[in-house]
Structures are given as structure tokens and as C-alpha cells.
Design brief:
The complex is a heterodimer of chains A (391) and B (871).
Chain A lengths: L3 H24 L3 H17 L3 H17 L3 H8 L12 H17 L4 H17 L6 H14 L3 H16 L11 H14 L3 H12 L9 H16 L2 H15 L5 H18 L2 H14 L5 H23 L3 H4 L13 H27 L3 H16 L2 H6 L1
Helix pairs in contact in A: 1-2, 2-3, 3-4, 3-5, 4-5, 5-6, 5-7, 7-8, 7-9, 8-9, 9-10, 9-11, 10-11, 11-12, 11-13, 12-13, 13-14, 13-15, 14-15, 15-17, 17-18
Chain B lengths: L13 H12 L5 H18 L9 E6 L3 E6 L6 H8 L6 H12 L22 E9 L6 E6 L5 E6 L5 E8 L9 H12 L6 E3 L20 H15 L4 E10 L3 E9 L11 E6 L2 E7 L10 E6 L17 H24 L1 H10 L1 H10 L1 H7 L4 E4 L2 E4 H4 L13 E6 L5 H11 L3 E3 L5 H11 L4 E5 L10 E2 L2 H20 L5 E7 L7 E4 L2 H15 L4 H13 L5 E6 L3 H8 L5 H17 L6 H52 L5 E5 L7 H11 L7 E4 L9 H11 L2 E5 L5 H13 L5 E6 L8 H4 L2 E5 L6 H12 E2 L2 E2 L2 H9 L7 H5 L7 H10 L3 H6 L2 H8 L6 H11 L5
Parallel strand pairs in B: 1-7, 10-12, 15-16, 15-17, 19-21, 22-23, 22-24, 24-25, 25-26
Antiparallel strand pairs in B: 1-2, 2-6, 3-4, 3-6, 4-5, 8-9, 9-12, 10-11, 13-14, 13-16, 18-19, 20-21, 27-28
Classes of the chains: A mainly alpha (391), B alpha/beta (871).
Chain lengths: 391, 871
């Protein structure tokens, strides 16, 4: 029988190796394999009584699960860090877990009042542990929350404050979110505010900041550029950037990054009238999507509806010979194809509307409901009454 | 470097220092009893070194002048001892003696307790003044020393008859409660129960336990040892021991004592096992929580270890001493070894301990790897074959090729599903673990993780295990497709959108359906578990709560059993009827009852509503049944009534044969009536022909007809013109449905066709009602007779049934005797049959009828000759 010290020694070595591999995989955003390695590392850490190591692994597993869109599992994994009875949890771990709770809560989303209380708790934690320098991470999420509610001004000012704090020299040793996360948020906010010049400026600033974990940087940046160029009407460039983002996104497990890239790609392709490519993007998008987040569900169904609306429009404006050139499901009933595709689009928008009701209801806004209502009424103006009722 | 400007000693407030030392050294004032008794014990031990026949004894007495006296017959002190040890704080006579004894290799050294020389100081915790009288063994000189807590002490010569020491403590007013005998007894028992010399209080006692089992080295038998240990534990502790474990460690560090597995409920996982700690028989610390291994929460006990090093205050031991880790490990080994012993040799007791402390044992095993390794195979689990350990369990199920020939550990995680899974496992011959108690699933997971090469965990309540629930071949599944689709649709319709129905084959065939959860449900369970167990801040807890409430209900799978008779029947039925749909819901509900842990608010509502619906259906069915019974009863009563009426009608029928003739009332039918009477009322028939108009039985026509029909043996109906009255009466006759014959008369010239039902009746044809009587008689008689013989069966059977012959007008008028019409009427009124007439005395006939008696013989003679039996 090997003695206990020897076993601990071997376990410590195993922890080092597994956690190294796991970190590499995580940095490369290969999240599924990273979870497997972090679990092995955690077991090894427990065998050699390396409590901090085990905690780090659990925290990283939680982060991986969150990024994979497995929010409920992520919350389960992170809960021990927030257990008030467990006194030995390091403040940064508790803060990190709380941040990820907030992220998940925003993504699902839960009620605004609950999210606000979690923010207040995080602020309190930073105050009591004298780590207010870490606040930039809290603010960057707050900015995204404001954006999700359609409050672009509030989103912009919060994001600016966040990035200012991030730039400050004393971070208290806590890195928080990478620059990419800050900047792609800023580009989104600028575009949502209808300020492409500001967005251009942020894209340029972004290039000057190096991150330690640049795995998804080019995806985020290419996606932002695709959206920006599309906004500017520079479709050829937009298509090129969207293609880059799309191809790169296929290699990452990070759901949020991936779906954003897919959406951009589809949007640009629809804008240039390339429905076959848009359809391919849509297939990948559907395969990626996990249904836990109502925000993601909403975005998907709106994209789906846009695709079918675009098909209906193209068929409506083309000759019968051209209609057959597009791949994918063809209408099967006796109704004209334009009507059929509009009907499918309407169904997608109705599903989006269901998600919108939930999201806007929870976040106390009407951004999505407004958008989807317009789309639905556009569809309904084309369809016969009977069809609308049966849809 | 500067030179000092003065050199002097620091001042000392001795009284204050003594109080300060005493109060900060000792946490409780009652320790002065422990310290003074311990000094007495050491003095006796030292004297025993030279006088092994000495009966050591300690006397404590409370006197009226607020003093407590501690008296021993130990070695006593000389003046030198008093000056060197008693009067110098930190100088210990016992330590001095101990060192000498150890140097000389004398055995008693380890029994001495004192070593710091400060125990006596504790007396000043409660004393205003302390007086010591002593006489050293082997000398005659006695001395008296006294001190009132100041720097100054006084020494006097004194008188004592025996060697020993007497310490008198004059108790301060604030500590008067120590002068209470009961209180002092408690203190003595708390600290001095293990002193090997009798302690007498006010002359009574001994009040301490002298026969401590773990200090004994010899036992007459194992039974005696066990009994003695158990008695000791029961006396010392209020809780009942589930098991008593003697401790005798004699290695690099030594300890003696006893552990017990308590029956005291241990409220939560944060508690610890507790030990009373002694060092060389002196009580050091009650309810210590550090010496027992952290997993031993269900254990308490007492241990005396000379290896432990007491702190100066002697209310604790030094935690960093190597003996502590050593003893902790040894105690753990002793407990585990005992559990192993019990599992093999005393299974009943082991079972009891498992049941009592199941969640501590399993919970601790989950937390502490070393404990887990030792007991993983021993702890008991509930299974469908009773309680059993994992070691035993793994011999039960055979390994499975689909799991790489590893042994499966089948389990389900909710006791609510126990009935269902036990039945399923029984039917397959599997042994399945009910891991519904807290920590059991974690325990099993840990076990499987640590034995990945040999075991594999199979959770049955979320797994559609193909060995237990065999999928159907496609051809067979096709057969049940309709049922699956209907049941799925029906369950969705009643609000169970999250239920998915599948077709499988499983044992036993008596179970029609089984409900299984899903992995998503497991995730939800985890969140619920976190909410239940972890102390989360309200905002974090709310996020989880909201996530849980927003989650669409996890799918629930219902496996239908293709081998079940009910399911097979349902697959062949029309399932769109309310009753069958209610049965579909019922099947789902039955499965839920079998696995009631899965009952959610929605499920419960469906079950409740379905039960109500079922009850209402049952009630409706019961009402229908009652109504049907009522109708049946009415029908039965009617039948009885009909039968009664029929039998009443039978009784109303005369002994002669009566034929009810139904003919139109028109005058033209009078000839036909005469012809019929001519035939039937005379030879050979002698039947009575009766028409509705002949007798009136009731005010209504219908009643009249009914009565006539009831009284007749047969019927003759004239149907040539299909007269409405005749047809009505004929209908009534035929509806009665009995076997009385019906003859129809029909003119050959009749134009209207006969209804089909009448065609089979005996029909007698004649030419026309306008024919003469003779012609009609001839026609009709030809229809009944051939060559004087009656050819028709129904007529023959009527004749056979005839008991008497009807005495008709025709018959009477056909005699040679010409009777006056009044006489004929009178005879017919009094006698309806020939037999009655002939049987009556002629004189009586004459009186009754008024017929002259001389006519009677002739009439009788004629009737006799005319009514000879028919051929």
C-alpha cells in the first residue's frame, strides 16, 4: 500500500497537469472538454486536500457551463460559493460566482427586481471586502442589461464607466471580463443608438487592447464589423466579415458568441439576398441553440421569421422559374408560395412574440414586443383572414 | 551604552497575584475540589509505595462554621515539605516524588497526577482562609499551616493521631453554595468519580465509582466484562447505548476507556461525537469534541490517557501533542473495527445502529474518505430483498455485458417510488436499492467512482433501461401506435403536456404503466436541493427559485406495458368514448400512485379531477343500474301480473270448451253465426260459441273483449272483409301470445288480401255469407272433417282438453222433447254442461228449472244418446 504522503504527492501532480490542460482548453473556448479536465483536476485537488484548487476548478466548471448556455447546471455548480455558511470561500470566488449568477439571471431572464437585488448584493460584497476596483465587471453586465431593456443611453454611460474602471491601474488582482467583452458591448450599444461613427471608434480602440484570452476575439470583432458595415450599407464588406465570424464561430463552444455570429451572418446574407447561404447559417444556428434562455429563443425566432419573410418577398418579386432556384422546404399546400412562406414567417414571429412577452415582462420593457408586433402585422397584411386565425 | 541609575526589585501584591492567577487559570470555581482531591490521591499513592497494606481513604466534610475539610491518610508533609512545596507556588512535591520514582523505576509513578505545584492555589478561588494540618508518615510530628491569601503564612506545631493531611477551606461568602451537601456531591462526582480510593462525604459513601471497568485488568468471563462495561455506561449517561466499545490502547501512547454508540438523536451534521477526558484518573474535560474522529458523530464515551498532556489549568489537554493525533486515529480504528465485527457477528445490532444513525454513517462516509474506505461495503441499504450491505448486494446481481461486464448497482432515488421499482425488480429477479434517504445517492456515486472497473450505477427512476423496459419490435410497435397516439393526445388534452408515452415490454405483466423521470428533472432536483440545504442570500435564492418556477416542467415518461392485459385490450378498443378515455387517465394515475414522489401540483390536480369524474361515472352507472333494476322489476311484476291474469283467466275458463267468435255485427253474418253454432255446439264437438254481444262483462268495450278473450279456449274470426273490430279483437288475441288455437273464416269471394301473420292460421273457407245455413254448415264442416273424422290437430287437441260438453240451445232444441223456450233458457241458465245436467237429481232439476219432471227422463235419455263420445 502506498503511504498517504505519496498519494497526496501524486494527486498534487495530477491536479497541476489536469488544471493546466483544462485552462488551455478553456482559453481556446473548447468548453466541453475543458469541463471534463476541470472535473478531473478537482478530484485530484480534493485527494491532496488542496481546497483552493478544488474551488477554482468548480468555479471554472460553472463558467464553462454558463458559456455553453447550460445556465441551470451553471447555477448548481456555483451555488456552494454563495453558501453563507461556508466561510472559507475567497472573496473573488464569491464575487465571481455572484457575477455569473447575475449573467445567467439576465440571460434567462428572471424578474428585473431580482436581478437588481443581486446587483445590490454584489455591490455590498465589494464594499465589505474592500474590492470596489472589481466593480467594472459588475458595470459591464449592467450595461448589457440596460441594452437588453432598450435603454441605450443608460447602457452607454454604464459601459463607459465600466471601461474607465477597467483601465484604472489598481484592479485588486481581479481581471474580470476581457476587453473584447467590453468593446463588443460598446459596439452593440452604439449601433442600437444609431451611432455608427461611435461604433467605428470603439472598433478602432478595441484593436489597441490585447487580451490574455484572445480565443474569441476575432469572432467578436468580425461580428461587430459585420453588423457595423451592414448598418452602414456596405454589404460586400459586411458579408466578408460575417463569413469570417461565421467560420470561426463554428469552432467555439461559447454559445453567446456563436449565436451572435450566426445571427449576423444570416442577417447580412438576407440583406444581400443570398437565401441559400442564410439557410445554411440558420441550420447551424438551430443546432447550436439551447432553449433555456428566452432572450436567445426570441432572437432565433425573429431570425427564422426574417428568413421566411425574405423568401416570401423574393418569390413575390420573381418569375416562376426563379422560385425553384432556392433550396429548402417548399410550400406543399395549394396556397401560393408567397402566402405559404409568409404563413411560416408568421408562425415563427408568434413564437418570438411568446418569448418577447416573457423577456419584456421580466425586464419591464417593451422593446421586443414592439418589434415583433410590427413584424406580425406586416405578415398578417399579406395573409387571408382564415389563414391568420389558423396559424 | 548608558549605565543604570538604580537597581531594585519589583513590588509584588501577593494576594492580588494569587487571586489573579487562580481566577484566570481556572475557568470554574468548583475545580478547587478536583485539585484538593487530586492532592489527596497523590499523597495516598505515595504512601502506598512504602505501605502496600494501606487502605487509602479521602474524607470530605462540611462543618457549620462555613468550612469544608478535605482529609486523607496519605503520606503527609514534613516541615521541609511545607516550606519547599506547599509554600512555594509552582513547586510540586508530587512532581519531585514522581521524578524520584521514575528514576528508581518504581511502578506507581504513572498513577501520580500532580506535576505543576499550582493546584493548591485553586483553593483561593473560593476560600477566605486555608488551613493545613499534616503529619508525615513515619514521623510523630504534626504541623498546622495557614494562609489567608496573603504573602504571609503561619506554621504551628499540632497534634495528629495518624499520618495524613487535613485541608480546611474557610469558604468565602460569595461561594456559600459549596456548603450545600448535594451540590458538593455533584462536584465530587463530576471530577473525582474515577479516583480509586473511597471518597466519603460527611461520613457517608463512598460517593465515587470505585469499580471502573476499564481500570480492571482481569475478568472472570467475557460476559462479565460486557455486563460491567454496559452497567458503567448506563450509570454514567442518560442515553441508552446501542453498543458499548471498550478501549484499551497500549502502544506508543496509551489510553483506556469506553465508547458507546448512543441512541441519542443527533440533530445535524455539524455536531460532533463527544468524549469525557481523564488524565491519570483525574477528570480534565467534559464533552470534548476534538479527540474522536470527525465522522464519529454518533459516538460518545470516556477515556483516560496518561499520554495526553494537560494544560496548566487542567481543564483541557494540549492539542498539538502527538498523542492527540495518535489517539484520534486509534479511536477511529477501534470504532470501524467494531462496526466490522458487528456486521459479521452481530448483524441485528449492526442493523439497529444503521437504522438509528443511517444518515450520519453514510453522510460521514461521503465526506471522509478514510471512513468511507473502511465502511463502504458494510453499511446497510434498503432493498427489495431487505436491508443489506453493498458487499452482499454485489453478490446478488449478475454483471451485464452492455456495461462492460461490470456489476450493476440498481437504485432509485426516491422512496416514493419504492413500491413500483421493488415490483419491477422482483419480477426481473434483480436486487434494487432504495436510495431515498439523504446521502445515499451520494454514497452510491462515490462507491461507483471508486470502483469503476467492477461496478456501474444504474438509476432506474430516470433510466429507460432496455433490459428492464424492452423496446418493441417495429412490427409490434405498429400495433400499439394508435393507443400511443390516443393516450398521448388525451394526456395532453387534460393538461399533461410534459408527459411522453412510450411502448415497452416489462415484467411483471400485472403493471400496466410505469412513470419515469428524466435527466432534466434530476437537474431540477439539484436546484431544489441547493435551495433546501444551502444558506443563500435572498437575492441569490430568488434567482434560483425563479429559474425553477420558470422552467418548463421536465418531461415525464410513461412506459406502457405491452404484456399487460388491460393495455392489450385498450389497443383493440374504440378509445374515443368518455369511459375509455377516463381509463386512459386512470392508467396514468395508477402509475403516478406507484411512484408518488413525482406527483406535482398539476399531476395531483389531474388525478383528483379524474377520480371525481370516475366517481361521478360510477354514481351515474349506479343510478342507471338502479333504474334498470327498477324497470326490470316493473317488467317482472307485469309479467307476474300477466301470468296471474292468465291463470285467473284459465280458472275462469269452463270445463267445457268455449270458442270466442269474432265477426262483424252486420245482420248478414247471423246466418254464418248460426252455421258455426250448428257445427260446434252439437255432436261431435259440444263447444260453446260465444260472441262479444252474448255477454257483457264490463262497461267498456275493451274490458269486455279482454274478458271474453280470457275466458275462451279458442277463437274463430271472420276475416273476409277484414272488419276493423274483428281485426282489432284478433290482434288482441294474437298479442296474448299463448297457444290457444285461432281459426279464421273467409269467404272465397273475399277481395281484400289477408295479412301475412294470419295466413298460417287454420283457415276455413266458405262461399258466401249469403248462402243458406246448410250450405255454410256443409262448407265449414268439410274444412274440418273428412269422412266423419276430425282432421285438424288443433280441433283434436281441443276435444282432448274438453272435460265436459256444453249444453247449448241448439242441443236442447234438437231433442225430441219440445221444450218451451222459457224452459230451455232456464235449463241453460242452471246447467252449462251436459254432464252437470245429467249428474243432477231430476227432481232438483225440475224444481230449479221449472221443467215438468215427466219431461226430464226423456231429455236425459236423448242427451245421453246424442252426446256419445266422438270418434
Amino acid at each position: 500500500m502506498p503511504n498517504a504522503d505519496f498519494v497526496r504527492f501524486i494527486a498534487a501532480r495530477a491536479y497541476e497537469q489536469y488544471s493546466y490542460i483544462a485552462a488551455e482548453l478553456y482559453n481556446d473556448r473548447q468548453l466541453q472538454p475543458a469541463i471534463v479536465q476541470y472535473r478531473k483536476a478537482r478530484d485530484a485537488a480534493l485527494r491532496c486536500s488542496h481546497q483552493k484548487g478544488a474551488q477554482h476548478c468548480s468555479c471554472m466548471i460553472g463558467a464553462c457551463l454558463y458559456q455553453l448556455g447550460r445556465f441551470r447546471e451553471a447555477l448548481t455548480e456555483l451555488s456552494p460559493f454563495l453558501d453563507l455558511l461556508v466561510k472559507e470561500t475567497a472573496p473573488w470566488l464569491r464575487y465571481n460566482a455572484l457575477i455569473q449568477y447575475i449573467e445567467a439571471a439576465q440571460k434567462l431572464p428572471v424578474a428585473l427586481v431580482t436581478i437588481d437585488r443581486a446587483y445590490a448584493e454584489a455591490e455590498q460584497l465589494l464594499k465589505t471586502t474592500h474590492n470596489t476596483a472589481w466593480r467594472h465587471e459588475l458595470l459591464v453586465h449592467r450595461a448589457r442589461l440596460e441594452l437588453a431593456r432598450g435603454n441605450t443611453d443608460a447602457a452607454l454611460s454604464t459601459a463607459m464607466e465600466s471601461i474607465a474602471l477597467k483601465r484604472a491601474p489598481n484592479e485588486g488582482g481581479y481581471c474580470g471580463q476581457v476587453w473584447d467583452y467590453h468593446y463588443d458591448g460598446l459596439v452593440d450599444i452604439a449601433l442600437a443608438s444609431g451611432k455608427p461613427e461611435a461604433a467605428e471608434n470603439y472598433v478602432n480602440q478595441w484593436a489597441r487592447h490585447e487580451d490574455q484570452m484572445p480565443a474569441n476575439r476575432h469572432i467578436r470583432r468580425a461580428r461587430c464589423l459585420a453588423d457595423l458595415r451592414c448598418f452602414q450599407g456596405r454589404y460586400a464588406e459586411a458579408a466578408r466579415w460575417a463569413e469570417i465570424a461565421f467560420e470561426a464561430a463554428l469552432a467555439t463552444d461559447y454559445m453567446e458568441v456563436r449565436t451572435a455570429a450566426f445571427r449576423s451572418f444570416i442577417r447580412v446574407r438576407l440583406a444581400v439576398g443570398d437565401l441559400n447561404a442564410a439557410r445554411e447559417g440558420l441550420v447551424k444556428y438551430a443546432q447550436t441553440l439551447r432553449g433555456e434562455s428566452a432572450i436567445e429563443r426570441y432572437a432565433f425566432y425573429v431570425t427564422l421569421g426574417s428568413y421566411y419573410e425574405a423568401r416570401a418577398n423574393i418569390i413575390g418579386s420573381s418569375s416562376p422559374g426563379q422560385e425553384q432556384s432556392t433550396k429548402g422546404a417548399q410550400p406543399t399546400s395549394k396556397a401560393p408560395p408567397k402566402v405559404q412562406f409568409t404563413l411560416v414567417a408568421l408562425r415563427a414571429y408568434r413564437k418570438a412574440q411568446k418569448a418577447a412577452d416573457k423577456v419584456d415582462g421580466k425586464l419591464k420593457c417593451n422593446l421586443r414586443i414592439r418589434e415583433v408586433t410590427v413584424r406580425i402585422s406586416d405578415c398578417e397584411s399579406i395573409l387571408p383572414k382564415k389563414m391568420i386565425q389558423g396559424a | 551604552m548608558a549605565s543604570s541609575i538604580a537597581r531594585f526589585s519589583m513590588g509584588l501584591n501577593f494576594g492580588g497575584l494569587i487571586q489573579l492567577l487562580a481566577r484566570h487559570l481556572y475557568p470554574e470555581p468548583d475545580v478547587f475540589v478536583r485539585e484538593l482531591v487530586q492532592n489527596a490521591h497523590d499523597a495516598i499513592e505515595r504512601r502506598l509505595q512504602n505501605d502496600d497494606e494501606l487502605a487509602g481513604r479521602i474524607d470530605i466534610s462540611i462543618s457549620r462554621n462555613r468550612t469544608i475539610v478535605f482529609r486523607d491518610n496519605g503520606i503527609g508533609m514534613s516541615e521541609d515539605d511545607i516550606r519547599r512545596f506547599l509554600s512555594v507556588i509552582g513547586s510540586s512535591g508530587t512532581l519531585d516524588a514522581l521524578q524520584k520514582m521514575e528514576a528508581e523505576g518504581r511502578e506507581g509513578a504513572q498513577r501520580l497526577i500532580g506535576q505543576f505545584g499550582i493546584g493548591f492555589l485553586s483553593a483561593f478561588l473560593v476560600a477566605k482562609r486555608v488551613e493545613v494540618r499534616t503529619r508525615k508518615a513515619g514521623t510523630d510530628r504534626a504541623l498546622r499551616w495557614q494562609n489567608d491569601g496573603s504573602l504571609d503564612c503561619e506554621l504551628y506545631d499540632d497534634e495528629m493521631s495518624q499520618p495524613g493531611t487535613e485541608v480546611t477551606v474557610l469558604v468565602d461568602d460569595n461561594y456559600g453554595y459549596f456548603l450545600d451537601e448535594r451540590r458538593l456531591t455533584q462536584v465530587i462526582m463530576k471530577y473525582c468519580d474515577f479516583i480509586p480510593f473511597p471518597i466519603m462525604l460527611n461520613g457517608n459513601g463512598p460517593i465515587n465509582e470505585l469499580d471502573i471497568p476499564f481500570y480492571r485488568s482481569h475478568w472472570n468471563s467475557d460476559e462479565e466484562k460486557v455486563a460491567r462495561y454496559e452497567m458503567f455506561v448506563r450509570r454514567r449517561y442518560s442515553d441508552t447505548p446501542l453498543d458499548v466499545i471498550p478501549v484499551d490502547i497500549d502502544e506508543e501512547h496509551s489510553a483506556r476507556g469506553v465508547l458507546m454508540i448512543t441512541d441519542r438523536s443527533i440533530p445535524d451534521i455539524q455536531t460532533s461525537g463527544v468524549m469525557d477526558i481523564l488524565i491519570r484518573r483525574m477528570f480534565i474535560k467534559p464533552e470534548d469534541t476534538n479527540l474522536l474522529p470527525p465522522w464519529a458523530k454518533f459516538v460518545r464515551g470516556v477515556i483516560d490517557s496518561p499520554s495526553l498532556e494537560p494544560t496548566a489549568s487542567r481543564d483541557n489537554y494540549k492539542g498539538d501533542h502527538p498523542s492527540v493525533a495518535f489517539l484520534s486515529r486509534k479511536l477511529g480504528e477501534i470504532i470501524v473495527n467494531r462496526l466490522m465485527y458487528l456486521s459479521k457477528n452481530e448483524p441485528q445490532r449492526f442493523k439497529q445502529i444503521n437504522q438509528w444513525h443511517h444518515w450520519h454513517l453514510k453522510g460521514m462516509a461521503c465526506v471522509y474518505d478514510d471512513f468511507f474506505k473502511q465502511v463502504a461495503g458494510l453499511l446497510l441499504f434498503k432493498t427489495n430483498q431487505g436491508l443489506m450491505s453493498l458487499d452482499t448486494y454485489l453478490t446478488k446481481n449478475s454483471s451485464r455485458p452492455d456495461f462492460g461486464n461490470r456489476a450493476p448497482i440498481y437504485y432509485f432515488s426516491h422512496s416514493g417510488a419504492a413500491t413500483q421499482f421493488k415490483r419491477l425488480a422482483d419480477a426481473r429477479g434483480w436486487t434494487v436499492i432504495d436510495a431515498g434517504w439523504i446521502f445515499e445517492v451520494d454514497f452510491l456515486r462515490k462507491y461507483a467512482e471508486q470502483n469503476p472497473a467492477t461496478t456501474v450505477l444504474v438509476r432506474l427512476d430516470t433510466t429507460d433501461d432496455p433490459l428492464m423496459f424492452q423496446p418493441l419490435p417495429v412490427s409490434e410497435e405498429e400495433k400499439f401506435r394508435g393507443l400511443l397516439s390516443d393516450m398521448q393526445g388525451h394526456l395532453t388534452q387534460i393538461g399533461l403536456q410534459h408527459v411522453r408515452v412510450r411502448m415497452r415490454r416489462f415484467q411483471p405483466p400485472e403493471i400496466p404503466a410505469v412513470v419515469l423521470g428524466s435527466m432534466k428533472m434530476e437537474q431540477e432536483e439539484k436546484i431544489r436541493d441547493i435551495l433546501r440545504r444551502a444558506a443563500l442570500s435572498s437575492s441569490v435564492g430568488d434567482i434560483l427559485e425563479e429559474v425553477l418556477s420558470d422552467t418548463e416542467e421536465a418531461p415525464l415518461f410513461v412506459n406502457l406495458n405491452a404484456d399487460n392485459r388491460l393495455i392489450r385490450k385498450l389497443s383493440d378498443l374504440n378509445r374515443q368514448t368518455p369511459t375509455v378515455q377516463s381509463i386512459l387517465t386512470g392508467i396514468y394515475n395508477c402509475a403516478m400512485v406507484h411512484s408518488h414522489n413525482l406527483l406535482t401540483e398539476n399531476n395531483t390536480r389531474v388525478m383528483h379531477d379524474q377520480f371525481l369524474e370516475l366517481l361521478e361515472n360510477l354514481l351515474n352507472a349506479q343510478e342507471s343500474l338502479v333504474s334498470a333494476r327498477h324497470e326490470l322489476e316493473q317488467e317482472r311484476q307485469q309479467i307476474i301480473q300477466y301470468r296471474d291474469r292468465d291463470s285467473a283467466a284459465d280458472s275462469r275458463r269452463p270445463e267445457h270448451i268455449r270458442l270466442f267468435m269474432m265477426a262483424p255485427f252486420d245482420a248478414e253474418y247471423m246466418v254464418l253465426e248460426g252455421a258455426i253454432r250448428e257445427i260446434f255446439e252439437t255432436h261431435p264437438y259440444y263447444f260453446e260459441i260465444q260472441l262479444a254481444r252474448d255477454y257483457v262483462f264490463g262497461p267498456s268495450l275493451l274490458e269486455n273483449i279482454k274478458e271474453h278473450i280470457g275466458r275462451a279456449h279458442g277463437f274463430i274470426a271472420e276475416i273476409s272483409t277484414l272488419n276493423a273490430n274483428v281485426m282489432f279483437e284478433l290482434g288482441a288475441v294474437m298479442l296474448a301470445g299463448d297457444d290457444r288455437p285461432v281459426f279464421t273464416l273467409r269467404s272465397r269471394n273475399a277481395e281484400k288480401d289477408v295479412p301475412a301473420d294470419l295466413r298460417e292460421k287454420l283457415r276455413i273457407e266458405y262461399d258466401s255469407v249469403k248462402d243458406s245455413v246448410d250450405r255454410l254448415v256443409s262448407d265449414i264442416r268439410n274444412g274440418l272433417e273428412r269422412e266423419g273424422r276430425i282432421i285438424h290437430d288443433q280441433i283434436r287437441s281441443l276435444l282432448a282438453a274438453r272435460k265436459k260438453r256444453f249444453l247449448s240451445r241448439k242441443l236442447l232444441e234438437s231433442t225430441m222433447v219440445k221444450l218451451q223456450p222459457a224452459h230451455t233458457e232456464s235449463i241453460m241458465r242452471h246447467y252449462s254442461t251436459v254432464e252437470d245436467f245429467l249428474a243432477t237429481d231430476p227432481s232438483l232439476v225440475s224444481r230449479q228449472t221449472g221443467v215438468p219432471d215427466f219431461l226430464l227422463p226423456a231429455i236425459r235419455g236423448e242427451l245421453n244418446s246424442k252426446t256419445s263420445p266422438i270418434q
